[in-house]
Amino acid sequence: MESGGKYAGSMSRTIGIWCEHNFQVYSAIPLIEKYTPKNKVILFTKKQNVAEIRLRFNVSNLKVQAIEPFVYKPAVLFKKFFELALVPVDFSYVYKNYHVGRDSKWESLVRKLFFLKLSGEKVNRLFVRCNKLLFGSKNINSHFHLDLLISFTKVYYSHLIPSPDTLPHISIMESWDHPMKFPYYLKPSFNLTWNTDLANETRRVQSIDRVRKIEPLKFHYINKYSDMNVDMIISTISNKAYSSELSKLRDKKIVLYPSTTSSAGLNHEGEMKLIEELAEILINSSYQLYIKPKPNAPSGDYAIFEKHPNVIVGIDSSSPNASDMLDEEYHMFRYALLNTVHTVINAGTTFALEASLVDKPIIQLVLDEGKYLGFDEFCKTYHLSEYVLTLDRTLHFPGPNPNEFQELISKREMTFSHQLKKWITN
């Protein structure tokens, strides 16, 4: 346990950073680097991540703390009951789509029994009040006496987060769909999000009034390496799998397709059908189709496409826990890969956001309904439909014949990419 919010010497404050998953930990790296020189930082995460995080950071002022010893089961059960009994299914468009048809029988029964629901704007406020009243003595500040807490969405163990009237709390949006995806069950001192549209969405859906903007921390590797020569980056990568992969792509016209699904999730068969069509379109061209597997997807998901001489299947993730995110060479590889490719073809991933930030041509597909076994609908999520598919120069697919498609790639049209970059940074 930690005691005391103030430390002697140069450590002026004790700052907690809450990251339940490794994707959030990666986003927190700039904050860890900012605060550890003069403050004591406690990084709260799940037990399964602790050992890898300790290996990643060699910082004397950083303590990596597992969350599980402080989890209070009655509070977890109360949160589940609160959600089923009081949160309206139409809390948000995305929340409704997720829960309709997915709730178990007993969850649906509880929702129906408690038919009087809160209005959406009251959900977070009432939960925080109940949590403070019932479980206020169980929050982490009872053990660590923090001066500031910074959390990254999503926070599952929200009963461990003190109310902002007892501890200043900054909440940071980790992924662009989080404000619309679920109630935060928090009322932070203020929230940080990427741009004006997402700030307005946070105010409207989460009823958080104090919202400010911050650059997307999950893409901070792009800023870190943007001033470095790509060949120099490649030469410093010691991981042979990464370096050999990049060498294999050298002097080739690479068209990169980032996969949206995996065999462990939904609509994978439809995406496999799409990739097969892309491979066939490019089979007699000068281009190589590079399939980038989804992070944390099972190995071998796309091995079947290696039968095509013009297809390269990228490196699989080394861990289902996304531990690659804690490997700096992985991000060097990501940046070098982005800068090596000729064009990105995107269906339903946020990789297009990253590609736009390094000014790569992007062909954003708008898949015809009914053609891809449900994958076409899967790629029309709220945020893609609202902010991406509405931009200029998207491509309805299937559409052009192979020659027309190859000609489109050769043009390296930048209108869509520039508009997407402008939206991200607005």
Q: How would you describe this protein?
A:
- This protein is α/β, with parallel strands linked by helices and 426 residues long.
- The chain has two domains: 14-71 and 121-214, Glycogen Phosphorylase B (Rossmann fold, 3-Layer(aba) Sandwich), CATH 3.40.50; 221-424, Rossmann fold, CATH 3.40.50.2000.
- It is 41% helix and 14% strand.
- Strands 3-2-1-4-5-6-7 form a seven-stranded parallel beta sheet, with helices on both faces.
- Helix 2 links the parallel strand 2 and strand 3 (62-66).
- The longest helix is centred in the first third of the chain and has 14 residues, at 22-35.
- Residues 1-10 have low confidence and may be disordered.
- InterPro entries: TagF_C.
Features of this protein?
seven-stranded parallel β-sheet, alpha/beta, Rossmann fold, single chain, six-stranded parallel β-sheet, disordered N terminus
Write a brief caption for the model.
The chain is of the alpha/beta class and 426 residues long.
**Helix content range of the residues, please?**
40-55%
| CATH top level label of the largest domain | Alpha Beta
Strand-pairing-aware structural class: alpha/beta
The overall pLDDT average reads: 93
Number of domains: 2
Quickly count the helices. 19
CATH topology of the largest domain: Rossmann fold
Whole-angstrom Rg = 23 Å
Which sequence of strands runs across the widest sheet?
3-2-1-4-5-6-7
CATH superfamily of the largest domain: Glycogen Phosphorylase B
